[in-house]
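Appendix B, record 7
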Amino acid sequence: MTRVTVFPLRPTLVRDTRTMPSGAPADDLGVAAGCIRPLSVENTVEDVSPPDRLIRAMRPMVPSTAVVTDLHAHTNRSDGSHPPAELVDIAAALEVGVLAITDHDTLAGVEEALARGRATGVRVIPGIELSIKMPHGSMHLLGYFTDPAPAPLVGMIAGFAATRTERAEQMVERLHGLGLPLDWQDVLDGAAGAPLGRPHIAEALIRGGYVSTRKEAFDLYLADGGPAYMGSDGLDAEEGVRLVLESGGAPVLAHPETLKLDDAHLDPFVGRLARAGLVGIEVHRPEHTPDQFARFGALAGRWDLIASGGSDYHRPTSPHHPGATGDPPLSTDTADHLLGAVLR
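Structure tokens (predicted):
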């Protein structure tokens, strides 16, 4: 089957016109059972009690139109602040009908989110955001699955955690060399068992009184190329794509702007990944400007990729709420197209 991507004069959704297997129920597409209609607080089950103040603050920003789809969100199983069930509750209250859990280098939050999705009617997509080794910029690769514990990926997660811990230790050592004797145990305690990342180091810097905010921690020390930064020493790009495919998943390039590549280098890089089996690229993100939307959408069209996206929500102080995917928003059938790409 072929994928048709149309770009009219006014940027709009990049649509995949392939059809799913005839009569395939939602469960066959690898997502939690349950409806995918818009869900408001009034029609959730009685035991749903998301943080009311947070919901009230976010709801005016949510369009009350068709099913909202968000394919990029984090829980406290990596560097988010909400437990998986609470994140699903928040999504339900904000009328997000399809939510992918994409924690960094772990699937630890997926089962809890799936169970809550069945209770609230939110269709939860099992996912992950893999750290990729790059000589420049930074790259993350999203994977979406029909199985909450896909092999061989699930067997490699312990190794990912060890790699992240080693990298975090090296960054803490660099901070020591900069005159900031951060307590390593405090970093570990703050992560509470989640795979270690720069946000956990940033929080430890705040607790130690070295900086006031996460932004300050990144601006001064932890941003790509910063004095305490250490690049990922994990999978390379093609290895990541192959791992997701071999695990029955759909690989999608996350936030392509963080690659820090101009068009002359980004286009052949994406083409190389497409030939390796990349299925999609994030086009619909709330921070994307019209120029970025057009640029990354054009890449999707040129390399026959599905235009995906999401809010990349982490915590209440995040700049964007769950369900925010930019203007125009993410197509409601994107999850089916991504999962269908690896089922055909």
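Remarks on this record: The longest helix spans residues 153-177. The chain has two domains: 26-155+234-343, 157-222.
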